[in-house]
Structure formats: structure tokens, C-alpha cells
Amino acid sequence: xxxxxxxxxxxxxxIFNRILTIEGEALKRQxxxxxxxxxxVLEAINxxxxxxxxxxxxxxxxxxxxxxxxxxxxxxxGYIRRYHDEEDRRRVLxxxxxxxxxxxxTHDEFHDKMIHAIFEDLKVEEDEVLVQSLRRVAGxxxxxxxxx
Amino acid sequence: xxxxxxxxxxxxxxIFNRILTIEGEALKRQxxxxxxxxxxVLEAINxxxxxxxxxxxxxxxxxxxxxxxxxxxxxxxGYIRRYHDEEDRRRVLxxxxxxxxxxxxTHDEFHDKMIHAIFEDLKVEEDEVLVQSLRRVAGxxxxxxxxx
DNA sequence: TCAAATGTTTTGAAGTTCAAATCAAATATA
DNA sequence: TATATTTGATTTGAACTTCAAAACATTTGA
Lengths: 148, 148
Fold this sequence. Notes:
The structure is a homodimer.
Chain A (H helix, E strand, L loop, with lengths): L3 H26 L6 H12 L5 H8 L3 H13 L3 E5 L7 E5 L1 H25 L5 H16 L5
Antiparallel strand pairs in A: 1-2
Helix pairs in contact in A: 2-5, 3-4
Chain B binds a DNA duplex through helix 4.
């Protein structure tokens, strides 16, 4: 009999990678020539209250230098544009092009379908205890200090 | 108010990455010069019923070629050894060296502590509904077809 | 003003992964 | 039994992701 810890461990080690693969393959099938990490960058830009390099990099948990590299290619491919903050011209702000919004919409649709399939299979949609527990787990990690 | 889907989405996109980072940093603090993916390879070897290249690569969801590369460096570093299956000399079997068992023990201890901290914080240890739900979620992804 | 701090980019290196080519051993078939 | 095919693994070259350190630009503070 597995303990809760072992199940959580399994989720962390195996499942996460599998989901990334599934989503990556979906992108390919849909003819979208972006990797999952590029999608994550676009998502972070989309959700950013403050769309500056530092702020987005922090959300993604990568260095600003790494983000610059990613943003360079996304710009080349026409998914984003850069502009300077007029208040502070050191700051580079990023905005999504229409092309990016389209891709995010398509990706969200797939993601929703996948989650929907899970719920259909598991019948957990109305499971209030699960919802509460997951919310707490998510909250826990959200606030967990990322030493740096 | 977030929906269950949004919470799951958050878990998938943000939280798992964060956990990988946390665990990776713990390795560094402990003076272990291995990446999380190398740890995953060692774990897969450790748990393998059939410790052959093909079988381990399949568990990890990577190609056998990629695993060969990983195994080469783990061998260089003295964490594993290779030998041929005497029944079928094409097959290469992998075994862990003591060094690897030590690292896995240390890693497991940290992982347990982390999970323990979560449970202490969340008080979900005896939450049977959560356990059942997580088990089903894990099971779902385990069987999800990885098209290849 | 100019030194320090802050925000970003560039660069070089390391790690991960894949696909394709190659090699080695086992199995099937003529 | 020879040899063609299949199966298991390795090698190689390329792409991608990421980081750290150096460099650059702008702002802020003494």
C-alpha cells in the first residue's frame, strides 16, 4: 500500500514530465513551432502585471540573461515586441503580438481538453476536499522561498 | 474564485518547476554534484525491475540514445556500472554503485523532509479523500498514451 | 558630477535531448 | 548453414535551455 508521500513523489517525478511531453506533442500536431518553454515564456508575459524582463524572469524562475535569449528568438519569430519603459528607459517591456495570443488560445484549449478528460475520467470536478487540498498545496509552494 | 481546473493548471505550470528547483538547490547545498535529471536516472535504475537500457529509457520517457549519454557520464563519475546480460549479450544492464545509493538516500531524506513540511503545514496527512484523488490522478497519467 | 546601483544584453560553456547512422548480437528464413 | 532481418545499444551532430560573468546603458545618490 502506497503512502500519501509516495503518491506525491510519483506525481512529482513522473507525471509532470509526462504532461510536458503530452503538451509538447500537441503543439507539434497543431503545427505550432514552439517548445513548451517558449509557451511558458509567452504565458508569463501574458499574465504579467509588470511586463519587464526582471519581473518575467522572476516569475519563470530563470535568470534575466536566459530570458533575453528566449525573448530574442520569440522576437525573431514575430511573437513579441519590445519597447522601453518611458518612466525608466533601462527597463525593457515585452508585449505579445497577435500571433502569440492565437497560439496561447490554441494551447489553452488543448490544456482545457486534457484537464477535462482527466476530470471526466476521475469524476473529481465537484470534489470540494480535493479542490481545497490542491489549493493549499499550490499556495504552499507559491510562497516557498526560492533561495537566490 | 479559482476553479479546480485553474488550480490544477497552476500546479502543472508553476509548482512542479519550483519543486525541481528546490530539490536541485538542496543537492547543491549538500555538495552533491548531480543534476535533477541525473538523480532521476539513478532513481529509475534503482526502481527498475529490468535494469536494461531500453527498459530504463522507457520509464524515463527519453530515447535510449539519450540514456546512453547520461549513463556515460554517470559511469565516468563512478555512480553506476554496466554489464552484459548473459542470456542476451546485446542487452546492457545497469547497476548502482554504493556512491549512488548514498546519494539517493540523501535525496530521499530531503524529499521526505520537504513533503513532511508540506503536510505539517497543510495537515492533510490523514486526508483519505486527497490520497484517493491523488492516486487516481497519478494513475490516469501513468496510463495516458505517450504517442511515439 | 561621477560613483554606485539597477536593468538588460552578450557571450561562452555545460547539460539535456533527439534523430540518424552505425555497430553488435540474436533470430528467422531461404 | 549462410544471410537477411530484427533487436538492443552507442555514437555523433545539432538544437535548445540555462547559467555565470562581463559588458553596456540608464538612473540615483553623495
